[in-house]
Design a protein that fits this description.
This protein has helices spanning 3-17, 22-29, 39-46, 54-63, 68-72, 92-99, 104-151, 158-180, 185-206, and strands at 82-85, 88-91. The protein is mostly helical and 209 residues long. A hairpin with a 2-residue loop joins strand 1 (82-85) and strand 2 (88-91).
Length: 209
């Protein structure tokens, strides 16, 4: 990226943030320069297609209520590249250090942000791994509960047994959906009626009915 493109990009971003049109910016420049700029001239400047004099940079800063260093400083997200000068290149971060040196506390903040930038993908991967592990453990627990219920129904707490039965009903509905591409209302009603009859039988066996 050329230095003119850095300045042009910052001018465009600042103009958009203050809600100013290119024509309005051009008219504002006329208050400080020999004449106003046309919309086309402002557009060309924002695309980095022209050089800037010191007076023009000051005029842009005044009209946009910005500071000259802000207009010359590469955005944080672009500071890993290089800036092209008429005869050579310099690191983007070096340019930022020249035109807007960081205070010690700002440098510490930037380092922390850079560290977080690299840490976030690692944390995301760790979270996904933990989620998969949680799902696996839940399936193992459910399978153990189901086996226990089959081997010794009386030893399974009522709440756990109801959860197992609910999962079994859901599995039946899903199986029907996969086999028929849709669960008919009649099939759902059959499942619910079977559940109701089973519930009555359980109550009678406990002596509740």
């Amino acid at each position: 990226m050329r230095l003119e493109e850095v300045i042009g990009s910052q001018i465009a971003d600042r103009r958009a943030s203050v809600g100013m049109s290119q024509a309005e910016l051009g008219e504002g420049l006329g208050r400080y320069l020999e004449r106003a700029w046309s919309r086309q001239a402002v557009h060309s400047a924002e695309k980095g297609k022209r050089a800037f004099t010191a007076a023009e940079l000051v005029a842009f800063a005044l009209v946009l209520d910005a500071e000259v260093p802000d207009l010359m400083t590469p955005p944080i997200g672009q500071r890993d590249g290089v800036i092209a000068l008429p005869n050579g290149v310099i690191p983007s971060r070096k340019l930022a250090d020249i035109v807007a040196p960081e205070a010690p506390e700002d440098a510490l903040t930037r380092l922390n942000l850079d560290g977080l930038h690299h840490l976030v993908p690692m944390l995301s991967g760790a979270i996904q791994t933990l989620q998969l592990l949680d799902m696996t453990l839940s399936e193992l627990v459910e399978d153990a509960q189901r086996r226990k219920a089959e081997e010794d129904p009386d030893a399974v707490p009522p709440l756990v047994r109801e959860q197992i039965e609910a999962r079994a009903r859901l599995a039946q509905v899903v199986a029907d959906a996969l086999g028929r591409n849709a669960v008919t209302a009649q099939r759902v009603e059959e499942i619910l009626q079977n559940d109701a009859r089973a519930d009555v039988l359980r109550k009678e066996a406990r002596g509740d009915g």
